[in-house]
Amino acid sequence: AGTSNAVLRDRDIAHVIHPLHDPVIQAHANIWVEGHGATLTDADGQQFIDGLAGLWNVTAGHGRTELAEVMRDQASTLAYASGYSGSSNLPAIELAEQLARICYSSINHFFFTSGGAEATESSIKMSRAYWKLRGKPHKTKVISRIDGYHGVTMAAMSATGLSTYWPLFEPRVPGFVHVPSPYPYRYEGQPGMSQGIAAANELEQAILKEGADTVAMFIAEPVQGAGGVIVPQDDYFERIREICTQYDVLFVADEVITGFGRTGKLFALDHWGVQPDIVQFAKAITSGYFPFGGIGVSDRISQTLRDAGQAWMHAYTYSAHPVGCAVALRTLQIINDEAFPEQAEIKCRQLLHALREAFADHPYVGDIRGKGLMCAVEFVEDKETKRPFPVGAKIGGRLYAEARRKGLISRVKADNFLLAPPIVISEQQIDQTVQILADSVQTIFD
Questions:
Q1: What three-state secondary structure class fits 403?
Q2: How many angstroms separate the Cα of 95 from the Cα of each of 75, 102, 238, 266?
Q3: How far is CA 121 from CA 109, 142, 158, 169, 254, in A?
């Protein structure tokens, strides 16, 4: 009884402030005590399918003893050393070398952080520094997208295009502009033009409005995650790359969720044959076992930094942390040995097929979408007009709560139910996931 959910919740509420802190939600929290593969077990001994791989990050699944062992071994040998100029460590060197081998061909230099928001901050500061060093000091603005998520530190939050993250913390950092998401289910487009090209051209219009000589970078997730698993049109990113090149704007790919196999490719822009100027990563690079992330920059940017003859005054205490680098190296080995991109592609087909079998004819399911092992089911009040349910109906929240009661942990964005389980999830668990969601939908709507 002393370690039940109820007892531990009371202790938690007494002292812990949570990310996205909400006392009402926390009053019903599960206290997790164990994980194995694609499942989590709470303090009452109840087992749940982890339908979001933690927070999109535990791609290798829970309970990987080889990752725990490499952490212990590295910490026993060298637990910490500064990553500042004048110091380095072997795992950091080996990780950078490995990333140069597997990343986009023009990207061969890497800066390491403790996570995704720090990676966004690093991209912004790298972009501004780059343009100053190139003699264009007014190129400072950042363009991002509505429904994009890039973290919630101040600059990252200002880039994030989900307005629910803003009100308590405004004013936002100036110099951030948002353009519409390509969102195939809802983007209205232009007559006589493909939807993807029209959506991409929103970027061109924003650059022209702001003035190309003021825009430093455009940041985008290849597949928008927290915004609702929004998969772009196949011609979207090719046009984005053209626009960024034409107007001398750095293209930053936020691959914090999509990187390292989640979408069926090691890096997601490879689906469309496009290369960014900066790529940012976190989450799956250590499968969540150690807080870690970073950015990779193009040879053009790294050479500019190298030729500058001055320090890039950006730093984190835990940059190039030897334990984090060691865990990342071991995770990359797992990703390669167990063919995570191929697994994600195969399991995506199974998951999307099962979702369509379960919901294609459902009167309130408007869209079923996905890329690799990240999928979403969008619920609407009217399928013909795509009219959403009234906010007060709280369909997404009720579905989330019902699925949780039935043994599935995941996430919703408005009335979109999101799924991105560990890549190691079994076929049986995929079917079980869809069955729980189907049962939850029946409970809510019948």
A1: helix
A2: 17, 11, 29, 16
A3: 17, 11, 11, 17, 12
In the structure encoding, which two tokens stand for residue 438, read together?
A: 């189907």
- Alpha-carbon dihedral angle through residues 283, 289, 292, 295, given to the nearest 10 degrees: -40
The count of other CB atoms within 10 Å of the CB of residue 46 is 11
d(CA 345, CA 373): 7
Task: Answer whether 270's CB lies under 8 Å from 241's CB.
Answer: no
Nearest to 99 by CA among 273, 292, 245, 249: 292
Number of H helices, E strands in the chain: 14, 15
Closest C-alpha among 316, 293, 371, 277 to residue 99:
293
Q: Which two tokens stand for residue 218?
A: 């455009």
SS3 421: coil
pLDDT at position 1 is 54
DSSP secondary structure of 217-246: EEEE-SSBSTTT-BPPPTTHHHHHHHHHHH
- Residue 294 sits at φ, ψ, to 5 deg, of 165, -175
Tokens of 276: 């960014």
- Could you give the CA distance from residue 145 to residue 227 in angstroms, rounded to a whole number? 10
Q: Which residue has the tokens 């499942």?
A: 39
Question: Encoding tokens for residue 400?
Answer: 């989330």
* Dist CA 114 CA 316 (whole Å): 8
**What are the tens digits of pLDDT across the range 158-206?**
999 999 999 999 999 999 999 999 999 999 988 899 999 999 999 999 9
Q: What is the DSSP letter of 284?
A: G
pLDDT in tens, 91-114: 999 999 999 999 999 999 999 999
Q: pTM, whole model, 2 decimals?
A: 0.97
CB atoms near residue 264 (< 10 Å): 24
| 119 and 281 Cβ atoms separated by less than 8 Å | yes
Amino acid letter, 56: W
b/e 159-179 (16+ beta carbons within 10 angstroms → b): bbbbeebeeeeeeeeebbbbb
Helix or strand holding residue 264 (H, E)? none
Low-confidence ranges of the chain (pLDDT < 70): 1
